[in-house]
Amino acid sequence: MMVRTIKLLLLVFTIGIIAIGCQKDEDIGGTAVEKLAGEWWVQLSVDGNLVSQNFFPLLTYNTADNAGNKMWLDDEEAIWPFKFKVDVNGANQTFSATGAESLYSNITINLQNGKVLTGVSKGPVSQAVTDSIYFEAEFSDDPGTVYQIHGYARTRYVEDDH
Q1: CA dist., res. 105 & res. 2, Å (int)
Q2: d(Cα 108, Cα 147) in Å, to the nearest integer?
Q3: Average pLDDT over residues 99-111
Q4: DSSP assignment of 114-161, as one string?
């Protein structure tokens, strides 16, 4: 009886090992705009002068079809409010838009000189190296005023969150 139990356990163990060995580890990969995607803390300036001392959250992320030439720019209704689809050049880490319509409000945006710079910023408290974002935006409900929106990628350190 004991030999039979040992053989049965050995058979179950062997089948388990074979089953585990047959599983494939698939590389899930990233999104088409992953170099530009992220959570950001940004400020607004006009002609180099801060509009507010406050930092605002901003998100950049891929579209549903994971297009390599488009991404969402979303302020989570914290700044203007806006959520625009912008044109992307992934190789240069740049983005722009002309007459893009917001999903949050009845405005359009002209966005120029959008750029993500890798590893050139630091968290304000942690001093952790992080990415930087910059773009110039003109909103249809404030024509003629060009806002410089600039900031850094969220470091995930609590002391760097605003």
Answers
A1: 74
A2: 14
A3: 96
A4: EEEEEEEEE-TTT--EEEEEEEEEEETTSTT--EEEEEEE--S-GGG-
> CB of 38 within 8 A of CB of 31?
no
Q: What is the pLDDT of residue 118?
A: 97
User: Are 114 and 96 spatial neighbours (Cβ–Cβ below 8 Å)?
Assistant: yes
Between CA 102 and CA 117 the distance in angstroms is: 25
pTM over 0.85: no
Cβ contact 130:121 at 8 Å: yes
**Per-residue pLDDT tens digits for 50-85:** 999 999 999 999 999 999 999 999 999 999 899 999
Q: What is the pLDDT of residues 6-25, one digit of tens each?
A: 767 676 677 767 766 666 66
Two structure tokens written together for 44 = 């607004």
Q: Rounded CA gap, 113 and 110, in Å? A: 10
140 to 45, 107, 108, 110, 113: CA distances (angstroms):
17, 6, 5, 8, 18
- Spacing of C-alpha 149 from chain mean position: 15
Please give the CATH number for the structural domain made up of 38-160.
2.40.128.220
